[in-house]
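Record type: monomer structure entry
Structure origin: computed from sequence
Chain ID: A
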Amino acid sequence: MTKTDAMEWADQQQQEFMKVYTGYFDSHEWCDSLEGDRADADSHGWYARLSAPGYLDCTEWTGPCKTEEGAINQLYELYGE
C-alpha cells in the first residue's frame, strides 16, 4: 500500500515546523462554534488544521470530511506544495 501525496506531505510537516492536527467532532457545542455555512447539522465529521507548536498561529479548520485522510487531503489542497 502506498501513501497518498497528501499523507506523505502531512508526515513531512510533522517532522518540520508545522504540525498537522486532526479530530472527529460531533458535539453540538463544536458545531455551534463554527462560522458561516458550516454551523449546521452537516458539521459533524473529521477536521484538520496546521499549527506551529509554541505559537498561537494556526490555520482554520478544514472539514467536515467522512475520513481523517479526507481532512488531510483538504489541508494538502490548501497548503501543500
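Annotation 1: The mean pLDDT is 78.
Annotation 2: The CA atoms of residues 2 and 8 lie 10 Å apart.
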